[in-house]
Amino acid sequence: MAHRFRLDEALFLERYWQREPLLIRNALPGFVSPLSPEELAGLSMEPSVQSRIISVHNDSWRLEHGPFDDVDFRRNDQWTLLVQQVDQLLPSVEALKTCVGFLPTWRLDDVMVSYAVDGGSVGPHFDRYDVFLVQGIGRRRWFLGDFCDDNTPRLEHDDLHLLKSFTATQEYLLEPGDVLYVPPGLAHWGVAEGECMTYSLGFRAPKMADLLARMTDTVLERLTPELLLEDAHASEAGAPGEVTPAHIQNARSALINAIHALDDGSWLAEVVSDGGAIDDDMTLIDPLLPGAVRLLPGCVLTWIRRQEQLEIFVANESILLDSDVEPLLTDLCSARAVNQESTVDSEQLLLNFLIERGLLVNEDV
């Protein structure tokens, strides 16, 4: 089942995205949680699933890692169960990704699902990524604070990165179908009012260091090894042994010019598609059956226009195909099912490329 948030997407991108929080009341009218608390607990008992329980008792916070069993849920403290990458496990949860189809699909990381008892919380904290918090069951009260950074004081705790102090500047009570967008770095603290479940759509951003390293490698591969720095216009000699500001600026300009001349942007597509690597322990890929197929959940497919062709990147590999593959490609990137059999040669080449790498699954998987 596909979803779409009820909001002014253009206004959101202009004013809120990575800038300000936004409460979207009734963003998903009539929303029914695709998962029950019991089903979420069952997932957390699987050894291949990433799960945690965060609890607090007498202001003392504790983190436990799964897999869990029934005994772990018989407790008297205030606790929250969190399960990562549920979108890779259940198509009904993966469908929530269509809510944010107006954002780059390669920026969307995963859907984490949490269950909390009354008063349950993960504590005051901030994240380095964008997140849409979709209320699924019950109610959760969210407190928003100030923007934080690495210098913001934190509690001394071996496992949790909780803020040492927190002052709320905004407060919202979310009910099923409500959504709260929280930009990176903003302090927030959600507390369950009664039992509740929340779906967190998290967006990752590539690290600048990774982008710079990949871009540099790309340029170096294309740079003539014998090419030397020219300094005809850096006439300022300076004192003996001195590297002057003019020398530095000349060299910097030469490097920037080389990047502009040799860089084709592939490094960005490579980095973000590589960031969507599949956890082999979590996902068991069955042989394909006849019928419709879709991209393996968690797999990131990206592409760049190259004149009359498209360069397609996935899992550290790429393929160049004719542009008539675009409709099929965008369907796959949007997590939509497609037909295995195609009369267009480029589409069949793409499907075969993905099938050979085990990156397609049947529609009902």
Mean pLDDT: 90
Quaternary state reads single chain
Report the CATH C-level class of the largest domain: Mainly Beta
CATH superfamily of the largest domain: Cupin
Total beta strand runs: 15
Uncertain ranges: 280-284
Radius of gyration: 24 Å
- SSE string, helices as H and strands as E: HEHEEEHEEEEEHHHEEEEHEHE
Structure overview:
By secondary structure, this protein is α+β, with helices and mostly antiparallel strands. The chain folds into two domains: 9-203, Jelly Rolls; 269-362, no CATH class. 22% of the residues lie in helices and 28% in strands. It is built from eight helices and 15 strands. Strands 1, 2, 3, 4, 5, 6, 7, 8 and 9 form a nine-stranded antiparallel sheet that branches. Helix 4 (208-222) crosses helix 6 (266-274). The longest helix has 18 residues, at 245-262. The protein is globular and about 75 Å long. The chain starts with 8 loop residues before the first helix and ends with a strand.
Summarize the structure in short.
The chain has 365 residues and is of the alpha+beta class. It has helices spanning 9-16, 37-44, 91-94, 208-222, 245-262, 266-274, 326-333, 345-356, and strands at residues 22-24, 51-57, 60-65, 78-83, 108-116, 130-147, 170-174, 179-182, 186-203, 292-295, 301-306, 309-314, 317-322, 338-339, 360-362.
Q: What descriptors fit this protein?
A:
single chain, 365 residues, alpha+beta, Jelly Rolls, nine-stranded antiparallel sheet, three-stranded antiparallel sheet, globular
List strands and helices in order, with pairings:
Elements: H1 9-16, E1 22-24, H2 37-44, E2 51-57, E3 60-65, E4 78-83, H3 91-94, E5 108-116, E6 130-147, E7 170-174, E8 179-182, E9 186-203, H4 208-222, H5 245-262, H6 266-274, E10 292-295, E11 301-306, E12 309-314, E13 317-322, H7 326-333, E14 338-339, H8 345-356, E15 360-362
Helix pairs in contact: 4-6
